Amino acid sequence: MAKQIVSERMLIGGNWIQKTESIEVHDPATGDIIATVPAASKEDVDQAIFHAKRGFEVSTRLPVHERMRILHDAASYIERNSGYYEDTIVSESSKTITEARKEVKRCIETLRISAEEARRIDGKTIPFSQMQGHERRVGYVYRFPIGIVAAITPFNDPLNLVAHKIGPAIAAGNAVIVKPASLTPLSAIRLAEAFMHAGLPENILSVVTGVGSEICDPLIEHEDIRFVSFTGGYETGKEIIRKAGVKKTAMELGSNSPTIVLEDADLEEAISSTVAGSFGVAGQNCIGVQRIYVEDSIYSTFLERFISETKKIKVGSKTDPKTDMGPMISEKEAVRVEQWILEAVNSSAKLCYGGKRTNAFLEPTVLTNVPDTALIAKQEVFGPVVIIESVHSLKDAIKLSNQTPYGLQAGIFTSKIEEAFQAVHELRFGGVMINDSSDVRIDAMPFGGLKRSGIGREGIQYAIEAMTEEKVVAFKLKNSPFV
User: Fold this and answer.
1) Which of the residues 92, 99, 109, 252 is marked catalytic?
2) Is 470 a catalytic residue?
3) What structural domains does the chain harbor?
């Protein structure tokens, strides 16, 4: 019997909106339509902004304890209905049920951290008397909500990365409009449901679904939008910055992440960590391991054992807890990565394992001897492919690691503290993980990169700082305490 296609609604100003025009949501594993969501128009975006302006007048006056209660209640709602959220992620994305369970737990944690950080939005005093003639002044810096936040989110973490934008926005006292990825909009709608159940006042949150090329420009260009938070590709991020005008932005734009393995490393740990970091979520992870540089003396052993562990990865049904890796987000994306692999192989790269595609499923793939000119060496592959090369020294590994225009995170395995600190200081990345692969993140840490990997930092505390404005307050006294 054919599965029933669910007609979903989007949230605008506290109202669930249905439209005649819709876009289809597909299960990447089968290509089947699982739902439709409204195809929003520019007028819908204008309505969302109209309501958000009114929502901001409410949110900025919400006492901190009420913001905290809403965030905690939303987290608890998700926790009570975790299976519902897990199934949504599995149905619309590449994630296996095991990966979906982890994401739901992280989303709950993200919202609870947001609640706790709401109580820590503070300022600092300013000693005005440091300058002659200002002895009668005392003052401080106060942080105020920025206004309306526009949040544009990706497909690879369709629930938690939305929470990373909504949570801090509400904690800071803002209104927020979310444009979720067209491929995975259902998880964002489910998250909005949690906030409605938690009693978030209407108008503070909108989730506008639709085609990005039609509704993103009216959103980011609008003067009432005061902050744009985007997670996605570099070219799109560059266009958003160009179009946004004079407003604050935060850009997390992906990477081509390296991990270095030196001859003194714990080899078993390095192999286990880099295999998981290379192929989790079918490689569709901005900090996933794309390049591994291994010292000459252990290269052959590392490569052999890495391939052996890769062969154990079970690719298959997303709903099976024994499955390690599901499909890519679409057959189109799987074809793109397959073409990048073929281009590298035709340019002298060696295909050590994998490379075969069936619809949206692509085998975990290991390449060596990849020329620097190959797309897969220069760009973010965002697929289950890893390049493993030998190096003579740490110096060579650092040079190769830094040669791409990206700089989100890197990893290094070594037992020598001096080598670790050299990597920390010389790797041009926003994060360096010692005795770990590049694929390490907790939701409280500052997360962001250098160069083409973006601007600013996510992580709840750091997002709240970005979503607030500093205001200087000074009192002039009749009498100076310093005279």
Assistant:
1) 252
2) no
3) 6-253+453-470 (3.40.605.10), 257-434 (3.40.309.10)
